[in-house]
């Protein structure tokens, strides 16, 4: 193994059982540790299940985002891109 990987299968599930502030703090610590370990983190969330404010808050924690819609159309968003 040349690089460690960490995956959270569903941030949506975490948000069902806890509030946004708690999930944000947890993910902030987790993503910092992933970065410190020079690992790769992949986190999945069902964007249509959450308000835009929730999505925008969590987006701050990640280096980029891949979106897949119901037609398998994929888009990549990186920081600073529109």
Give a structural overview.
The chain has 82 residues and is an alpha+beta fold. It contains three helices and four strands; from the N terminus they run E-H-H-E-H-E-E. The strands form two sheets. A two-stranded parallel ribbon has the order 1-2. Strands 3-4 form a two-stranded antiparallel sheet. Strand 3 and strand 4 (74-77) form a beta hairpin. The longest helix has 17 residues, at 20-36. The chain is globular. The termini are far apart.
> Structural class of the secondary elements?
alpha+beta
Number of strands: 4
Q: Which band does the percent of strand residues land in?
A: 15-25%
- N-to-C order of helices and strands: EHHEHEE
Tally of helical segments: 3
| Percentage of residues in helical conformation | 25-40%
N- to C-terminal separation? 35 Å
Largest sheet: 2 strands, parallel
Radius of gyration in whole Å, from Cα? 13 Å
Global shape: globular
Low-confidence runs of at least 5 consecutive residues:
none
Task: Return the average pLDDT rounded to an integer.
Answer: 89
Strand order of the largest sheet: 1-2
In short:
The chain is α+β, with helices and mostly antiparallel strands and 82 residues long. It has helices at 11-17, 20-36, 52-59, and strands at 5-8, 40-43, 65-68, 74-77. The chain has a two-stranded parallel sheet with strand order 1-2. Strands 3-4 form a two-stranded antiparallel ribbon.
């Amino acid at each position: 193994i040349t690089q460690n990987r960490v995956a959270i299968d569903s941030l949506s599930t975490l948000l069902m059982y806890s509030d946004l502030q708690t999930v944000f703090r947890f993910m902030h610590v987790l993503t910092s540790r992933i970065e410190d370990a020079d690992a790769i983190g992949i986190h999945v969330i069902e964007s249509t299940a959450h308000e835009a404010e929730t999505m925008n808050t969590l987006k701050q924690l990640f280096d980029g985002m891949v979106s897949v819609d119901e037609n398998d159309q994929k888009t990549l968003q990186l920081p600073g891109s529109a």
